[in-house]
Amino acid sequence: MSQIKQITNTLKQLLKQHKVTYRMIANELAMSEANIKRVFATNSFSLERLEQVCNILNLTLSDLFSLSEKQQQQLTELTLEQENELIDNPKLLLVAVCVRDYWRFEEIIEHYDIEIHECIRLMAKLDKIKLIQLLPNNNYKLLIAQDFRWIKNGPLERFMEKEVLNRFMASSFDGEDCFRFYLRGRYSNASIGIIQRKLNQITKEAAELNIEDSDLPLVKRKHMGMLFAMRPWELSLFEQFRKQQ
To answer: Has residue 191 got a pLDDT over 80?
Structure first.
């Protein structure tokens, strides 16, 4: 991710935490809301404009750059202890998934059967195991990256394989917003490397889009599951016909 895009993402998160809207920024800077949205969408900040937005948040440019740098150091993989904590407590896992998608505290208790005090305790637990940093008024700062990976053969990966992937792939994938594509072939190592790089890039872009869309109300965002997979593989139907070497 480019530095200016990372800074823009950090700024968006800060605006959301402080409940500052694009319209409020537009009024403060005597600009149209459409222009403010365009600046954020295209990351086309002048240094002066960036400083003006920071002033609305009572931040200096140095504060913003420092926060942005810290966010780049977010966890990309959980520890075994962290994964076990989540697997052992389904509600904790649920809240972890919600905060990873930038749900507000009020949205979690509105959509799920979790009492206010219980949700506070669960978020405090996520803070204790270093997945979030709790802030005043039940706000939080996410400490895990959007594209974090599960531990190989770890608790979360085993849970996903057993409880999620089989049910996920059992769908017909013929509904709205659904897509399924299977392709096989024989590729050189160089071509496999290219495909892997492109899949990694798609993963990063999907994670960035999740951050960008976090500004939207929950009713304008859909739960989506995406699965990217590639490995040396042959249908078992074909394997029985292989000649023994």
So the answer is: yes
